[in-house]
Amino acid sequence: MAGTAALLLVLQALVAPAAAPPGLKPPDATPPSSYAAPNMVHFELAATKYLSAVTTGSVRVRTGPGTNYASITLLVEGTRVKLLKKNSKGWWQVTIGRKTGWMKGSYLKLSTKAATNAIGYLASGKGFEDNGDKGPNKTSRVVLTYDDCPKTLSDFNAVLKYVQAKNIGLAIAPTGDCIADFEDRYGVNLATLARAKGQWVINHSAVHQDLRPLSCAAAARQLRLTGVSTNYGRPPHGAVDGSVECAYASAGMNIWTWDVSTQDWEHENKALTISRAVTKAKRGSSVLMHMWTPGFTPDAIRQIKEGLSKRGLSLCRAYRGMDNAGAITTTPRYLPDSLPC
Ligand SMILES: [Zn+2]
Predict the structure, then answer these.
(1) 134 C-alpha vs ligand 1 centroid, how far in Å?
(2) Which one of 93, 113, 270, 281 is CB 3.0 to 4.6 Å from 285, fit for a cystine?
(3) CATH number of the domain within which 162 lies
């Protein structure tokens, strides 16, 4: 139910952006006086002190400055974007990840802080190829990500116990089918179990269907079916096209694919999975693996950790709050703009 409520909030924010209280000007009619240059109808950012902005609600990035332009993506509240320029109607051209688009100024809190704007915050996965997407991890630490479903609850618990003991933070992407299956078989919710151990849990659709043949609306319905309710999702098969991007945007999720694939689903070989993870990972990588393969064991993760360490790389740590201090605690359902890896 919490997911439905969150979705409703997102939808409310989308359908009623211009509804100003009576007596007030519509929110985007006048630029805030703090940065309005009186004699300029249009000015470049260089003329202002503002470098970035943080979204104050769920807001769309569009291909042009107006609600009649197509949506590129949907940003959740608290996302930092880099400001490029503003037009006379109060719309800002921004960049986020590798994307550039326009946003309504009334949904932006302007800041003089520079946007780090790490590559790949909002990524377009292009199939199985490694595509540079490091998701919301902007640190130099490597995130091991595991998709689909574990074979048994004891496999899952063994990994959780190990990563908790070693202060490792994985990203787990179970399908809706998987969550339901484990609820039936064992009476547990895998997402809840993982979050309680400081692990990140993202959506992987309901039934793992390739979403590309579906319309945006039909794919969005797929994403709203059973499954993990959050603001990040990994498209089944990493398959993304314009319609899939549209579906994720309308379901209120950012896409997170990977930049390093171990191809573990093809070979199901533990040693090969480990060696590919270790040799291909770079600073800040997201490594793709699957929970049903032999790469999802405490020993495989231990070997990957050791191998990376020899290359001067560290794994993302379990969640201990945004300041990364204190004991491991439950991760939030909605991932922050930047994971405290
Ligand atoms: Zn998958």
Answers:
(1) 17
(2) 281
(3) 3.20.20.370
